[in-house]
């Protein structure tokens, strides 16, 4: 296992280990203090109880032959009881470390004093406790008791030694387990990194394996979704480039072929005119396609339309429909208007004229003489609806999912570039709306644009 010293895994391991060690030391320090205090409190309680018992025994004896009584008490007890005179500093009884006791009580001047303390003597650690013998009958005397406190120090030392031994093992265990756990939880980061390294910008097909639903798993899903969109975009760009090249090549081929044929030999003026007209038509088709491509490029950049001035949409659509009166009349196609007056929207009139023109043109090309085209404008449920319906050829069901694809045409021989409907869809999305289509072969097609009112 190779350790990388600049890895986030090692940094996390060290961070958590330091936190754990600090918490462990704080816990053991508190436990040590509580343990020590508990032992001394327990010893003090035991000594006080024993002191009270012996005080009663001495007082009940009437203070007769106290030295003999103390010797008898001390002979069968682990405690050593004595009487201390605060005036003469004399000790009655034979406790251990007499001089140490006198030194500890040398500052006591009242027989009402109560003391509990540990003495460090040549006999070891001794716990000393004194209290008044009898304030009324023996006003100058204290009763005292001592007991060995070595067992407390032994237990505390054992605890400390155990701590000193276990802490290093805990630190080592924390480092190893922390490093392994960090590696386990960061494996998704490694998967993200490996996938990012392998991804080919020209062909985004690799995806991050997702093995959990935690934050990193959610991040991986989000990145995979992003990769899906990028892949779809690049695929559409490839298809767009291929289609654009094909559709641009056709008029160029026509221009080149007509020019070559016209220049092969001398021809009659009307033959030259026919060739030039063919070249002009091809050039116009190519020019229209370039214009459409420029419009699509503008739409793809998603310009901000929120700052546009308020537009009289009703008037704009009426003006756009006026331009189609003559072409429709010449073809024998009726035009039905159902435009509600006074509808306004923030936007550019050129955008809405282009939407209507493209949809009416599409209907015009696929509606035979005797048919009709209906254009409606209305407001409903907080949305503006623009509806273009015709009684033309209709569109087969299998083609409906693709009619907004760029360069897509139901029949390749149909005039046009196949960019009209994608332009309409792009402009509708600029305004936060959407466009739907309903069609039945032989009965006609209906396009519905829905745009929210600001």
Quick structural summary:
This protein is an alpha+beta fold and 454 residues long. 54% of the residues lie in helices and 18% in strands.
Explain this structure to me?
The protein is α+β, with helices and mostly antiparallel strands and about 450 residues long. It folds into three domains: about 10-155, PAS domain (Beta-Lactamase), CATH 3.30.450.20; about 215-300, Helix Hairpins; about 305-450, Histidine kinase-like ATPase, C-terminal domain (Heat Shock Protein 90, 2-Layer Sandwich), CATH 3.30.565.10. The protein has helices spanning about 10-60, 65-75, 100-105, 150-185, 185-200, 215-265, 270-300, 315-320, 325-330, 350-365, 420-430, and strands spanning about 80-85, 90, 115-120, 125-135, 140-150, 310, 335-340, 345, 370-380, 385-390, 435-440, 445-450. It has a five-stranded antiparallel sheet with strand order 2-1-5-4-3, with helices on both faces. A hairpin with a 2-residue loop joins strand 9 (about 370-380) and strand 10. Helix 1 runs antiparallel to helix 4 (about 150-185) and helix 6 (about 215-265) runs antiparallel to helix 7 (about 270-300). The longest helix is centred in the first third of the chain and has 53 residues, at about 10-60. The mean pLDDT is about 80.
């Amino acid at each position: 296992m190779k350790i990388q010293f600049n890895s986030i895994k090692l940094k996390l391991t060290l961070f958590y280990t330091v936190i754990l060690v600090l918490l462990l030391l704080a816990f053991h320090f508190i436990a040590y203090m509580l343990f020590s205090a508990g032992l001394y409190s327990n010893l003090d309680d035991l000594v006080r109880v024993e002191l009270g018992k012996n005080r009663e025994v001495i007082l009940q004896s009437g203070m007769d032959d106290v030295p003999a009584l103390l010797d008898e008490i001390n002979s069968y007890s682990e405690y050593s009881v004595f009487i201390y005179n605060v005036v003469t500093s004399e000790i009655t009884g034979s406790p251990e470390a007499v001089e140490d006791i006198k030194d500890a009580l040398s500052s006591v001047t009242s027989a009402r004093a109560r003391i509990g303390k540990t003495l460090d003597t040549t006999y070891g650690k001794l716990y000393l406790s004194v209290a008044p013998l009898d304030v009324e009958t023996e006003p100058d005397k204290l009763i005292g008791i001592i007991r060995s406190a070595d067992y407390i120090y032994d237990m505390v030392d054992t605890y400390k030694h155990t701590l000193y031994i276990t802490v290093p093992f805990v630190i080592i265990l924390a480092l190893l387990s922390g490093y392994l756990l960090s590696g386990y939880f960061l494996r998704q980061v490694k998967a993200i990194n490996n996938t990012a390294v392998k991804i080919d910008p020209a062909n985004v097909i690799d995806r991050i394996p997702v093995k959990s639903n935690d934050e990193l798993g959610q991040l991986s899903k989000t990145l995979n979704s992003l990769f899906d969109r990028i892949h779809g975009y690049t695929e559409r760009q490839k298809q767009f480039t291929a289609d654009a090249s094909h559709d641009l090549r056709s008029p160029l081929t026509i221009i080149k072929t007509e020019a070559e044929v016209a220049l092969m030999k001398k021809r009659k003026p009307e033959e030259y005119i026919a060739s030039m007209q063919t070249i002009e038509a091809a050039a116009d088709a190519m020019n229209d396609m370039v214009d459409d491509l420029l419009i699509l490029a503008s739409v793809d950049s998603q310009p901000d339309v929120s700052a546009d001035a308020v537009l009289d949409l009703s008037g704009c659509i009426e003006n756009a429909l006026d331009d189609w009166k003559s072409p429709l009349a010449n073809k024998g196609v009726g035009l039905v208007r159902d435009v509600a007056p006074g509808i306004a929207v923030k936007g550019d009139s050129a955008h809405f004229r282009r939407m209507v023109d493209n949809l009416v043109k599409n209907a015009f090309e696929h509606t035979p003489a005797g048919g009709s085209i209906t254009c409606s404008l209305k407001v409903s449920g907080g949305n503006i609806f623009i509806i273009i319906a015709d009684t033309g050829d209709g569109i087969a069901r299998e083609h409906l999912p693709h009619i907004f694809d760029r360069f897509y045409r139901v029949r390749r021989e149909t005039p046009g570039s196949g960019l009209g409907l994608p332009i309409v869809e792009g402009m509708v999305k600029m305004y936060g709306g959407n466009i739907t289509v309903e069609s039945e072969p032989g009965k006609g097609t209906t396009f519905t644009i829905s745009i929210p009112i600001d």
